Amino acid sequence: RSVYDDQPNAHQRFMEKLDACIRNHDREIEKMCNFHHQGFVDAITELLKVRADAEKLKVQVTDTNRRLQDAGKEVIAQTEEIIRCRVQQRNITTVVEKLQLCLPVLEMYGKLKEQMSVKRYYSALKTMELLENQYLPRVSQYRFCQIMIENLPKLREEIKEISMSDLKDFLESIRKHSDRIGETAMKQAQQQKTFSTTLQKQNNVSYGRNMHLGRSRVLESKNEMTLKRTFEEDDEHEEEVLTAQDLVDFSPVYRCLHIYSVLGDGEIFENYYRKQRRKQARLVLQPQSSMHETVEGYRRYFSQIVGFFVVEDHILHVTQGLVTRTYTDELWNMALSKIIAVLRTHSSYCSDPDLVLELKNLIVVFADTLQGYGFPVNRLFDLLFEIRDQYNETLLKKWSGLFRDIFEVDNYSPIPVANEEEYKIVISKFPFQDPELDKQSFPKKLPMSQSVPQIYIQVKEFIYASLKFSESLHRSSTEIDDMLRKSTNLLLTRTLSSCLQNLIKKPHIGLTELVQIIINTTHLELACKYLEDFISNITNISQVTVHTARLYGLSTFKDARHAAEGEIYTKLNQKIDEFIQIADYDWTMSESDGRASGYLMDLINFLRSTFQVFTHLPGKVAQTACMSACQHLSTSLMQILLDSELKQISMGAIQQFNLDVIQCELFASSEPVPGFQGDTLQLAFIDLRQVRHSLLVF
Q: Count of domains in the chain?
């Protein structure tokens, strides 16, 4: 440190000490060498002695080594062969182990290819999953494994494309077969309903007996035919109960759903399926333009819709989440609105009541079928009430034609009956009762004409036709009774009344026909109570019920009679005017002919014969007609006498006119229509008598 600290003379002193230390070490080394030198010399001497022996040993060792090498060459060769075999054995063992590890992978991949070839795509996806999760990770270091790993996504896409193609084929298939599916479902629902109705009737004997009086006449033959047809079909297909699954292979949609679910694209598949089905629903709900022309058009339309929703209901119950109840309800509500709009439009074109009735039956079967699958159909039954009004309108138009045809062919004369059998035939058709007529012997005549029983029968047929529409509407007997009475009232007050009014106004209807029309309407009015009983028997609703409507036949036939009476008065006056027009008075004649004018005698004879026909009319009507005719005759003669063109009258003309007036008074006093009091009818000519008297005095 002193050297580094640069003390004075420190370096010199250090060097001196260092030299002293070196000299001490040299002396120690020298001492040691001196001590060992003899030993070294001895060793060298020993080595020199051994040198010769070492050379001999070297020669011997070399020779031994040569001979050993020559002897070991075969051993080495055998050893190398053993080593090579052991390496091969080890390699074989390694290969076997690796193959045992790879074989399951290859077997699974082969299984995958086989599943793809036989279109077992869902199983193929499961195999892919096993390959990826269990097998391929064990052999991921091999190149073929990488190729497999690269191919698996492609296979998945291929499976998706194939399954989607199968789904599209499935959607096309159900679109084509939806009408057949729906037709089968509707047929089964109708058969089930018919069978249930039959059982209900068998279990309710009293109800059946009450209904037998009316309704069974309409329904019995129809039900028998329906049951016969149903049972024949059941016998023919006893063991075959077709369902949607029998008609359509649903495996593509199941397979596609499972595939997309496994691939994690279940939501994509659900959205695609629902979108496509909505499109198909719009196509199914689109009717043909000529659908309203035939019942087959409506049947095909309903069958397609039923088939569509039967498939959706099947998908709803056999799959989880593909369609939901909310989705089907939403789709049904959309479809129901469209269906109602379509039916309202197309049914308005139907003018045939039979077609409207067929449409109603189809709607009922359609509603019952879908109701059986859990869809609400109340709006359809509400629509049926709208169609019922239209059905009634078509019935009214049809019956209007029937009434016109009956009136056209009627002879407007009393019905002749030659014997008891003919009388019973008429009575079986029309409820006629007349004790006085029953006492008369055959042959005899009933007061009404042939049109009366025919009209009565047609009114009953109309009630039957109205009843047909009321069936299967799930309405109470009271409501059906009310519907029948309202529709019958419309028939009486509008259709029949209009036909009667038009008939009365026709120019070819004469006085005799008008008289017969009045008689006919009187008997039809009396028959209204039997029509009410008829409706009550059909519906099993007593007439004493508070809410039971009454038939308005009284006002209908009363109005028709009033119109006929007015027409009688008018035609009588017209006929009188025709006779007056042929009157040809010679106002300058010197003396009268001594008898009444020929035209007046013809007129009086006509009036006598006409009033004889009035014997079957109510007395007031006949009296009013007679009074009206006499007054009109008096007025017409007065107008002839007071004609402004008449300038002068001779005494002979006055006497001739006086004879005509006297003849009129004689006719009035002869009481052509019974029931007048005193000289009431003669008062019609009182003004004419005064004028005649004045002329004679003048």
A: 4
Reading the block at residue 531, the tokens are: 């029509």
Give bridge partners of residue 417 from the DSSP assignment.
444
The answer to whether residue 325 is domain-embedded is: yes
Residue 458 — very low, low, confident or very high, per pLDDT cuts 50/70/90? very high
Residue 667 has pLDDT above 90, yes or no: no
Q: What is the CATH number of the domain that holds 560?
A: 1.10.357.30
d(CA 354, CA 395): 9
Q: For the residues of 54-103, what is the DSSP string, one character each?
A: HHHHHHHHHHHHHHHHHHHHHHHHHHHHHHHHHHHHHHHHHHHHHHHHHH
How many contiguous H segments (helices) and E segments (strands) does the chain have? 24, 2
In which element (H, E) is residue 446 found? strand 444-446
Residues 441 and 533 placed together within one structural domain of the fold: yes
Domain boundary at 349, 375, 401, which? Answer: 375
What integer pLDDT is reported at residue 84 of this predicted model?
A: 93
pLDDT tens-digit readout, 350-361: 888 888 888 888
CA 268 to chain centre: 32
Domain closes at, from 313, 347, 375: 375
- pLDDT tens readout for residues 3-55: 666 666 777 888 888 999 999 999 999 888 888 888 888 888 888 888 888 88
* Burial class of residue 308 (count of CB atoms within 10 Å of its CB; 0-12, 13-18, 19+): buried
Query: Is 118 in contact with 127 (CB distance < 8 Å)?
Result: no
For CA atoms 401, 407, 410, 416, the dihedral sign is positive
| Contact assessment for residue 16 and residue 3, using Cβ atoms and an 8 Å cutoff | no
Q: Which of 470, 466, 473, 300 is nearest to 380 (CA)?
A: 473
Three-state secondary-structure class, residue 417? strand
Q: Pick 641 or 413 by higher pLDDT.
A: 413
Q: Where are the beta strands (DSSP E) in 439-521?
A: 444-446
Domain of 594? 583-697
